[in-house]
Amino acid sequence: MKYDIYAQSKILAIFMKDNGMLNISQDITSSIEYSSTATEILMKIRFILKKIDMNDKRFSVDEINLIKEILNEINKNLK
């Protein structure tokens, strides 16, 4: 089964919203909804996720792993 970056990113956006990071949540959602091409979406999401502080205590291990997983999949797709 193919990894669904968009679906996983939407799940991450919900986690961000629940952790009080509404701006990041909205940025992820907007990237998916308002970009013209798949490449543009992936590049925007990658840019957003790379700015996240992985040491932030508001994130669970599962959330950090999801961020890393999405970034890995994006990098595979953009090569």
Gist of the model:
The chain is mainly alpha-helical and 79 residues long. It is built from 4 helices and no strands. It has one domain (5-77).
Secondary-structure blueprint of this entry?
Layout: H1 5-18, H2 22-34, H3 38-50, H4 61-77
Helix pairs in contact: 1-2, 1-4, 2-3, 3-4
Could you explain the architecture of this structure?
It is a single chain. The protein is mainly α and 79 residues long. The chain has one domain (5-77). The chain has helices at residues 5-18, 22-34, 38-50, 61-77. The protein is globular and about 30 Å long. The mean pLDDT is 94.
* Number of distinct beta strands: 0
**What share of the residues does DSSP label as strand, in percent?**
under 5%
Protein structure class: mainly alpha
Question: Radius of gyration, rounded?
Answer: 12 Å
Count of spatially separate domains = 1
Helix count from the secondary structure assignment: 4
Indicate the mean pLDDT: 94
Order of secondary-structure elements: HHHH
The major sheet is characterized as: none
Q: How many angstroms separate the termini?
A: 20 Å
Helix content: over 70%
Low-confidence stretches: none
Q: Which descriptor suits the 3D outline? A: globular
